[in-house]
Amino acid sequence: MKIIRQIEVFAPDYLGKMDVLIAGGKILAVEEQLEGGYEGVEVEELSGEGKVLTPGFIDCHFHI
């Protein structure tokens, strides 16, 4: 489980600096400040300062 702290979030609208909880390759929570409560689970905390989180981009450019 990972928590990215204070990352700029666009989803797709700008949400501001948020904490993001990730587990199993999926985003489980996006909140202003995630609190503890993860006893017995190893949690890696990462700084999101200077980083931006956006929805996935798809390159739909093609030639026929």
TrEMBL record:
One of its GO terms (molecular function) is beta-aspartyl-peptidase activity. Its EC number is 3.4.19.5. Keywords: Hydrolase. InterPro entries: Metal-dep_hydrolase_composite. This is Beta-aspartyl-peptidase. It comes from Staphylococcus aureus. The lineage of its organism: Bacteria, Bacillati, Bacillota, Bacilli, Bacillales.
